[in-house]
Amino acid sequence: MHEHKDYVTSLNKARKKRNQKMDPRYLLVLLAVIAAAGIIALAVKNFKKPVSGRAGGGPSGQEQGTPSEAEPAEADAEADTEAQVAEALSHFTNLGLIQVSGYVNIRETPGTDGTILGTIANGGGCEVLGTEGDWTKIRSGGIEGYVNSQYMVTGDDAKNLAREYVKLRAVITAKSLRVRQTPDDTNSENVVGAVSEGQRFEVLGQEDGWIQIEDGYISQEYAQVSYALDEGRKLDEKSMAINQYENLVMSKVTGYLNVRSSPEDKGNANIIGKMTSKAGGEILETLDGWYKVKSGPIIGYISSDPQYTATGQEAKDIAMQTATKKAVISTDVLNVRTEPNTDAKIWTQIVKDEKYPVVDDPNTPDGWIRIDLDSVDEEDGGESDSAYISTRDNNVEVRYVINEAIKFKPADDGSSSGSGSSGSASRRSQVVNYALQFVGNPYVWGGTSLTKGADCSGFTMKVMEKFGVSLPHYSGSQAKMGKKVTSANMKPGDLIFYAGSNGRVNHVAMYIGNGQIVHAASRRSGIKISTWNYRSPVAIRNMLD
């Protein structure tokens, strides 16, 4: 400041004169300069730090120059924040900090050919578990894997740098949580996206049970807020579904591709499974005209003809287009309710042998998901009851999956003799094998075409018609025909019936043996193979004997 410069100059001159001679006039000048400098300094201080927080003065009734009470409060807040930052860093025994422009991949094994499990961004923290060559094994954000060591700092350097990256963050605790445009869960139209368990986001604000993040608002009930470093993130769910395959093959057929026990076509004799259209698998070995694959629970052989199968980038493109979000059940039996709350009626049960399509319904509250069981007959309007399952007890994993092969052997109950023609197969085997030709074809409400589309009872009606059995086009009426059988003695070709929440039959499927059914399931799934108790059956009828 100019005033301070003038004061120092005058003081130096005064000292020089005093040394020559202590004239009283110089003393008077010196005192005047000191007083003036003090007045100026006080004015500057008050101008820079007004008591009221506004330049020029405080609120009415507050005396100018009174020490502000905000300063101790600010100091306390800073100390509290500093303590929380220290607490956040204390969770790491051996801290590693990513320093890179963008992010690095976390791989399953140490090397660029390792499967990518997730990513960790610049400033992300991790627990260092060890090193292998040029790679560091870490644990971060629930992911354990390897990152290239050149993108990481450790030790005291990491601790010192990390302080600037610690922010107030929300860690998601629900399996899946909707992000809303406004802090309002009564309006289904304001849903703008979803986040997954373990993901963390910088908190921009908090109000009335809601947390504001960059993309919108999330419910505070399903997030834990604290000061923390950013950490690793799993790949987006579709990429994760595809990334589990090192050498992906996808079925390109319209219906299904047979999986065989040996690399040769022996008709029905060596069929052990089926890959439906757009199903995927891992190529284990390439032979002349065949791929040895692992798909779902099956290891077997499929044709390598490019008109039937896709590999490389073509396979990845198909997989990205067709991977769907499904509920993967991890418990033997799970209740399905008509409404998303535990007071609602349990109207059926589902099993872990099936993966159930998830209906993206913005009205479904957090902690619940709506699944697609099947569509129903024309007489019932073509749509089944709303089916809700709870995700709160960790019995369900919601993720994108690619369809895979299912175990299957052509039906043959050994009830007939003869050889050399289709007549050698029993009537039941003929019925089942005929029905299976149409797997992959579309579901059409009210339809009766096995190729262009049928609903559940239209499908069973037309299949049975081929073998001289006349059935009405309604599952409820079909359930009254034939002869009642139990699950213990049911045979391929028997019809299995399922009911809605009102107890009335609304869906029908054909048993094909080996604990499986074929049915026109829904608009999403078309004609498909499922486990016979994919939901609780209410009746089984023999139409053939």
From TrEMBL:
It comes from the Bacteria. Residues 93-156, 324-393 form the SH3b domain. InterPro entries: Cell_Wall_Dynamics_Protein, NLP_P60_dom, Papain-like_cys_pep_sf, SH3-like_bac-type. Gene3D superfamilies: endopeptidase domain like (from Nostoc punctiforme) (3.90.1720.10), SH3 Domains (2.30.30.40). Residues 71-81 have a biased composition (Acidic residues). The chain crosses the membrane at residues 26-44. Residues 52-81 are annotated as: Disordered. Residues 425-545 form the NlpC/P60 domain. Keywords: Hydrolase, Membrane, Protease, Thiol protease, Transmembrane, Transmembrane helix. Belongs to the peptidase C40 family. This is Hydrolase Nlp/P60. It comes from Enterocloster alcoholdehydrogenati.
